[in-house]
Every structure is written in structure tokens, then in C-alpha cells.
Amino acid sequence: MIKTIFFDIGNVLIHIHPDRYIQYLADSTDLPIDVIKDAFPLEVHYAYERGEISGHEFFLSFREALPQPCCLKESDFWRGWQKLLGKETAVVPLLQTLSANYDIWLLSNTNPQHIRDELESQVSFLDYIDGGIYSFDAGSRKPDSAIYEYALEKSGAKANESVFIDDLKDNINAAEKQGFIGIHYVGEDQLLEDLNNLGIEIEKMVASV
After folding, report:
1. Which has the closest alpha carbon to 104: 147, 143, 145, 157?
2. So what's the pLDDT on residue 25?
3. Digit-coded pLDDT (tens) for 40-82
4. How far apart are CA 70 and CA 205, in angstroms?
5. In the listed set 82, 97, 129, which residue is the last one of a domain according to the structure?
6. Of 82, 106, 134, the domain-final residue
7. Domain containing 77: what range?
């Protein structure tokens, strides 16, 4: 019996716009978009999402990776960071309905800036959850096995009674290895079908979603 449903955030509950972030930084530095993309320190970003470095250290690593001397201000860096986040998706009303009968948790690779400074004041779906598993608290990122173990420990859920919904197949595969029931999110209609196939009745939401 399914008791708990874990949702990824980015591109499942909220639209993500990396193009807006890159464009803002390009405009702020008068550098080409390709230069901004090439300079982005991916491994440092992962470290930030794991809570291993501060936001300031993340900014410094990015600025140092740009052609020098660089005029990028930290305030502009974080304004651009805010532009990554878009509007809520059509999945949010579905999450609200599911929360009446299931424990709902978030399971996301994310960072303190987005959670504490943006999401907490801008989205509605936090009202419908029992808790959040964030990579910067877990000290690990999907698809590392440790974050799924942390999610089960913190939520008190059992893997074989839990559904995990994510837009990245690698994350789903890793969750399934830990015993979760995985749903690879590709769109609202497919999600409705997959949930129904698991015996999760959600007909009331079909018209809304």
C-alpha cells in the first residue's frame, strides 16, 4: 500500500529557466552567453547544493572562472539566480489533492538561497507538504544513494510504500534501487496515468490538471 509520495521540485512543481539566468549574467558582465555557460563551475555548484560551501564561496568560484578582470557584482549574481525560478506547474493542484490521503514530501537537489529566500515566499505547494528533503541538508545529491536513505530516515517512510516522482531518469533509477516506486515525470497527463496505474485514484483532478 502506498502511503508516501515524494516530489522533485524543479520542472515538476515549478518551471526552471536557466536561459533567463544566463542572459541576466551576460547582460550584467557584457560577456557572450557562451562564455557564461562555459565558465559555470558545475562541480562547485554541486558542492553548494550539498551544503559543503557557502553561497558567497559559490559566487566567488563563478566570478573567478570568468575572463578577468571581471565586473560581476555579487548582488547581480543572486538577482540572476532568482530568475532561474518560474511559475508553478499544473502538477501543484494535483499535489494538493493527493495531500488529503497521502504523506507528501519534497525530495530535491537545491540550495538555501532558492528555498529560504525565494520558494518560501513565492509558491503555494509548501502548504500541502509534510516536509522537505533538500540536498543541502542531506549533504548529498540525487542520484547518490545517501539522499534517498536520508529521505526515508527523516520522513519515517518505507521505500516499498513510497512513490518518487522526478523529471530525470537517473534519479528515478537510483530511487528504485533503494526500493522506491519510481515515476519518471514527462508531463501532467502521463503522471495522472502512472498514478492511476498504481491504484492512486485522482479522477477529481483530471479536469483541473
Report:
1. 157
2. 96
3. 999 999 999 999 999 999 999 999 999 999 889 999 999 999 9
4. 50
5. 82
6. 82
7. 18-82
